[in-house]
């Protein structure tokens, strides 16, 4: 038997047994106005109505009236209505039972409804807690999965860079080393002084090529490790262009450099040696791609407060739009005019050095054919 069924049976037992128990107690006492006992029964009916509702109260009222009429109303032990008081008692029982029972029934229904709502709210809250927990676990799993995917991609990218680095380094080292070994171990290369001189020049050129590659690789390692140290001072960008032009003319005496001395007198906050390295790489790149007889153009301008923009312009084939991001990657090369000497690291070093100076570098669209490399440096504070 369920708890609800047991409670229902107990309700009816109280409605029936309550008046009988009260009667068994009251019949032991004698009182001149035994009819006043009716108020005790009315109290019992009211209690049953409040606790159990309308129908148990009506049943309790009916049994209470019968008990009062049988045991306490003259003539005793008969069910008779002797006078108006008996009618009043009956109506009182029924009225009390009806009113109290009806009110109690509504109160009980409201209480049951409130309990049902409370259970529903509790169940909804439990379900919400479960859903929130599942959602949190799902979000945590998604976050762990995303982190794992990022780590996997990072490892894959690192592995790709490692393989590319090994492949490019081995390719770059193989050619000059092979030339040096061939020239230095072939006895026929030293038959005459002219042959010997030519052999030494070739070995020296390949040695310089190896040194440039090693220097560039060391610079890239320092930049990528974040260990680059800059000696930032206020310097005139025009002085740096003059020094870079002298170095360019030693490598390419016929290449003309077109720049405006007056507009180049802009003070920037930079490391002298690293700024020279930036200009050397950009001028060397322009010299390699520019057609013979055309100048390499350098323009300096202050386009926004706090920044000085420097542009290096050539009249070569230019850089296609889809390659303008990749051109700053390590060992990336465009199609040159066949000149040797590029390590494939120059523009990657330029990007790292410019960003270390809190500047930016990019390839722009020019008004004429050719490539336009623009980089920015912070303007030196006024003294």
Task: Describe the model.
With 383 residues, the protein is α+β, with helices and mostly antiparallel strands. The chain folds into two domains: 1-185; 233-378, Heat Shock Protein 90, CATH 3.30.565.10. The chain contains eight helices and seven strands; from the N terminus they run H-H-H-H-H-E-H-E-E-H-E-E-H-E-E. The longest helix has 102 residues, at 84-185. Residues 336-340 have low confidence and may be disordered.
Report the order of strands and helices: HHHHHEHEEHEEHEE
- Specify the biggest β-sheet: 5 strands, mixed
Overall geometric form: rod-shaped
The tally of helices reads 8
Q: How much β-strand is present in the residues?
A: 5-15%
What average pLDDT do the residues reach? 80
Return residue spans where pLDDT drops below 50 for at least 5 consecutive residues. 336-340
Head-to-tail CA distance between termini: 98 Å
Strands, total number: 7
Radius of gyration: 52 Å
**Helix-and-strand structural type:** alpha+beta
* Quaternary form: single chain
Helical coverage, percent range: 55-70%
Q: Structurally, how many domains make up the residues?
A: 2
Arrangement of strands in the largest sheet: 2-4-5-7-6
